[in-house]
Amino acid sequence: MDTRKDYPAALALRLDGKTYGEIRGIFKIPKSTLSGWFSNLKLSGRAKKTLESKKKNGYYKLLEFNKLRTINIHKENEDIRKNYESRIRRLSNRELMILGAALYWGEGYKNFGQKKNIYPYVCFGNSDPLMHKVFVAFLERCLKINKDRIKCQAMIYPGTNSQKAIDYWQDVTQIPVKNFRTQLAISRSSQGKRPWNILPYGTLQLRVSQRQEFFKIRGLMDGIIKSAGL
């Protein structure tokens, strides 16, 4: 498309303080062409002031648009979350049994039998306090394990206050404080460089030292696998 015939009129508009967008809206001239024409054009003070004002107004309009868009996205996200939250009613014991076994499948120690002379026991570890609340409910309601039988080990990092970690996890689980102890956790990969504030209370391991309880959970996991047709 030959745009050279539009050059004089486009030039006049530019000298009058029109933006590339405004000129393109009139003549359908590509922005690259306008940039080539006017990149070295000397504008008057009035034209510069007009363009600067339009640029500033456009910037604030964009800010307002982005702010409104962010608000709408957050609202939509919360509406979706609330909708799906409302679909979950109080869990039956069977549903909690399946959920607890699935949590252990993902976060529990399962490798007994691969190493000789290791006594099987329940060991569930995570840093999510709500996950621990659900798992403790599973142990109590489905496996009938009293909280007095659950031992807790808080894996803390350099800089973590041991007593604060115990107080925090005891409040989360409501397991007797006498069942808690802490252990300093420094992995070879982190070499002690893990920032303490990522997990200010460390992670918690829940343990039940009875092989029968381990094999109950192992059986539930196998039952899930079979029921899923896997």
What does this structure look like?
It is built from eight helices and four strands; from the N terminus they run αααααβαβαββα. It is elongated. Helix 7 links the parallel strand 2 and strand 3. It has a four-stranded mixed β-sheet with strand order 1-4-2-3. It is of the alpha+beta class and 230 residues long. It folds into three domains: 39 residues; 34 residues; 135 residues, 60s Ribosomal Protein L30, Chain: A.
Care to give the gist of this entry?
By secondary structure, the protein is an alpha+beta fold. The chain has eight helices and four strands; from the N terminus they run αααααβαβαββα.
Main sheet: strand order: 1-4-2-3
The first-to-last residue Cα distance is: 63 Å
Largest sheet: 4 strands, mixed
The count of β-strands is 4
Integer count of domains: 3
Strand content: 5-15%
Could you name the ranges where pLDDT drops below 50 across 5 or more consecutive residues?
A: none
The CATH class assignment of the largest domain is Alpha Beta
Examine the coordinates and then state which fold CATH places here, giving the name of the CATH topology of the largest domain: 60s Ribosomal Protein L30, Chain: A
CATH architecture classification name of the largest domain: 2-Layer Sandwich
Q: Can you tell me the overall shape?
A: elongated
Radius of gyration: 32 Å
Name the helix and strand elements from N-terminus to C-terminus, one letter apiece.
HHHHHEHEHEEH
Provide the helix percentage: 40-55%
Query: What is the SS-derived class?
Result: alpha+beta
Count every helix, treating DSSP H or I runs of 4 or more residues as helices.
8
The overall pLDDT, averaged over residues, is 88
Protein name: HTH psq-type domain-containing protein
Organism: Candidatus Yanofskybacteria bacterium RIFCSPHIGHO2_02_FULL_41_11
